[in-house]
Amino acid sequence: MELSKAYEPQKVEGRIYTLWEKSGFLNPDKLPGKRKKTYTIVIPPPNITGFLHMGHALNATCQDILIRWRRMQGYKTLWLPGTDHAGIATQNVVEKELKKEGKTRFDLGREEFIKRVWQWKEKYGDIILDQLKKMGCSCDWSRTRFTMDKDYVRAVEAAFQHYYDKGWIYKGKRVVNWCPRCQTSLSDLEIEYKEEKGNLWYIKYPVVKNSKSQAPNSKQIPYSKFQISNFITVATTRPETILGDRAVAVNPKDKRYKNLVGKTAVLPLVDRKLPIIADRLVDPEFGTGAVKITPAHDLNDYQISLRHGLPMIQVIDEQGKITKEAPLPYQGMRVFEARQKIVEDLKKLGLLEKTEEYLHQIPKCYRCGTTLELIPSEQWFLKMGELAKTAIEMVKSEKVRFQPKRWEKVYFDWLKNIQDWCISRQIWWGHKIPLKGVDDVLDTWFSSALWPFATLGWPKQTKDLKAFYPTDVLSTARDIINLWVTRMIFSGMEFMKKPPFKNVYIHATVLTKEGKRMSKSLGTGLDPLILCDKYGADATRFGIAWQIMGGQDIKFVEDNIVMGRKFCNKVWNATRFVLLQISNSKLQIPNKFQFTNSKLTVADKRILKALDKTIKAVNKDLEGFRFGQASRRLYGFFWHDFCDIYVEKSKIQSSKSKTEKENTQKILLYVLLNSLKLLHPFIPFVTEEIYQQLPIKNKKKCLMVEEWPK
RNA sequence: GGGCACUUAGCUCAGUGGCAGAGCGCUGCACUCACAUUGCAGAGGUCGCUGGUUCAAAUCCAGCAGUGCCCACCA
After folding, report:
1. Could you say which of A159, A344, A464, A609 is the most buried, measured as most Cβ atoms within 10 Å of its Cβ?
2. A651: nearest nucleotide, CA–C1' criterion
3. What sequence ranges are listed for the domain Aminoacyl-tRNA synthetase class Ia (predicted)?
4. Shortest CA distance to A49 belongs to which of A90, A107, A84?
5. What is the DSSP string of A383-416?
6. What is the dihedral of CA A433, A439, A440, A442, to 10 degrees?
7. Paired strand residues for A146
């Protein structure tokens, strides 16, 4: 047999992936041998709008290394793939398409629009899964799931019903984050804050003259029907919301305003009476120490309003426009427009004391970037009390372990201050809330929360569910610890009475060389498939794995992929050398014991010992999710111990006896074969290709199902 | 405002108490040799700064400076 002079991944990868698919070994039920213990990973389902980015590539590499390693160790391994319908994200993409045709989703109507989304899904939804194949991922494609499959819909309905029957789902009018563009409420976790320059406006509110007192300086002012005595100044970043004001609040300990508490202020432009109240939430250090209270459009103010029994007035609607509750001149104006006019009007009345520049965090929709409004709205909520308690307990008792451990803190901090989960969304693409007369759909994460067991057939008690639940590892990004991981944990406990996984591996974030976030919109993204084309999928995987050190973020440099490519070529060529040394007739793979009684040279003993040490160390590394250490160890062993030292020494044969020469040949083949096995989880294509071409007798059908070295 | 990380060679990073390391890049030499995607040799570092603990500190402790990320109701 003949290997080309250099390894050419383009000629190999497609063919080898087909070999794996045809072998059936991606499916745990078709793996050879008796396999009692299972090892399961469910993939974090990428959005159907998604394309593979470096984060996916890294996560896919980690998961595939683990799965291939365990598969070779004799586990019944399942890596279950799938995609998420990603409510808002997908709806937005399809809406953008419609926009090109000059249409909105309302032109089509709900039913027609959803049809459109399904068409889109059928056409593009699986692209990202094909990209995972290019990376060499050994998922069981026969079990691919989608969060809106018929069976999955049943799981979502069953889960909803369960919570409903328990009385944990309720309807409530709350001030929620609202995206005027997506026309839906959003949960706290779906907000992104962006720092923007704004102003802090200081506005003078007249104070009504106490009817009993005879203050000499009281007067009637032209713009108010009330007699006023003096003014109280409040500071605000959003003057347009004054239209919805219901009170002015100060801190109860603030001496400056002691006399004013209990009196009444007048809301400029509206001429509404506002009680002046005291509440501990008011920070006397900020602004003037007096704050306007707008219960309908601010979360703090809403809290305060509950304590003081203040009613809401909604002055901003779902479109982000001023409502009819406001005075006529402002009605129908967009928020920003109204802001400018109100500031002008206040200035004219001499009620604008001053304006300061102010840098603050503006809430944005994490899907479309539109500035969010806070508006009161009827929504469905899921009570979090018991569920949160269970979730905390699972991690505290170490039934679920975070890896690295420090991410526990993010998890606990969120759960300890948790609010009830707003599970309704006013979009069209998603799971309809299974109640009569409700058009809302469920938050995407409600269905994602069921992923580890709904994909295995729940609520039916399937064979798969019994065999593969709970899973072993969840490997995911840190930014969805609370959006997703937390919710899977309490859902798993609620419906399966067991946590959905034993380990949560929070992988590194891939940054640019400059330490910035990789993002498509900023043009700082890097397409892993381009790297695969340029250097090969193995090189890309190895280069990525090389950089995964202790969960530290990775400033990505291509240099490591170059290293990966060189390494694959080295493995290829070392094989060529070994094959030249051994005879052409098919050889039996030497077993370890054959060496123990033979006459071994110092070099022989050294390489065998080094191999042994490497096997043990790599196992330990992988058990601890230390992918970088494992790849460096394998690299060092193969390139230096094996190629530079042992192979080079083997070339000097003149002084050797016949036995020694035979030993050398056996050891070359033995070490090579074991190296291929050890390297296979990291660089599966090249090692499989070589294995397929090795002229040895007792071969398995694929290296993928060879026995892991012991 | 709170939290979590990070700072070591030109670049990207290992090393967590005992002679400063890797990959990439760079310099020189070597292609009838498995591999020039190679081999051999080499240059390159006050381990962010200041103190402390120790026989011994890149490593442990304290403080400072800088960078990044996350959370948060300061209007």
Report:
1. A159
2. B33
3. 16-435
4. A90
5. --HHHHHHHHHHHHTTSSEEESGGGHHHHHHHHH
6. 30
7. A83
* Cβ of A559 less than 7 A from strand B: yes
The H or E element that residue A90 is part of is helix A87-100
**77-136 on A, CB < 7 Å from strand B:** none
What are the pLDDT digits (tens) for A161-192?
999 999 999 998 888 888 888 888 887 767 88
The CATH class, in words, for A34-163+402-507 is alpha beta
| Residue A463 to residue A447: CA distance in whole angstroms | 22
Give residue-wise pLDDT tens across range A375-425.
Answer: 988 889 999 989 999 999 999 999 999 988 889 988 998 888 888 888 998
Does residue A233 reach within 7 angstroms of strand B, measured from its CB? no
Tokens encoding A628: 């970088």
Strand B interface, A 405-434, C-beta < 7 A: 406, 409-410, 413-414
What are the domain boundaries of chain A? 34-163+402-507, 186-365, 558-705
- Write out the two tokens for A221: 């002012």
Nearest to A306 by CA among A229, A249, A221: A249
As assigned by CATH, the class of the A558-705 domain is: mainly alpha
- Residue carrying structure tokens 């975070």: A402
- pLDDT digits over A129-159, tens only? 999 999 999 999 999 999 999 999 999 999 9
CA of A597 to C1' of B71 (A): 63
Q: Which nucleotides of B are covered by protein (CB under 7 A)?
A: 3-6, 11-15, 22-25, 34-40, 67-75
Q: What is the 3-state secondary structure (H, E, C) of A429-497?
A: CCCECCCCCCCCEECHHHHHCCHHHHCCCCCCCCHHHHHHCCEEEEEECHHHHHHHHHHHHHHHHHHHC
Predicted complex ipTM: 0.94
Residue A464's pLDDT band (boundaries 50, 70, 90)? very high
Q: Is the Cβ–Cβ distance between A52 and A528 less than 8 Å? A: yes
Whether A7 CB is under 7 Å from strand B: yes
CATH class of the domain comprising A186-365: alpha beta
Interval A204-243: pLDDT, tens: 999 988 765 555 566 667 777 888 888 899 989 899 999 9
CA distance A196 to A357: 11
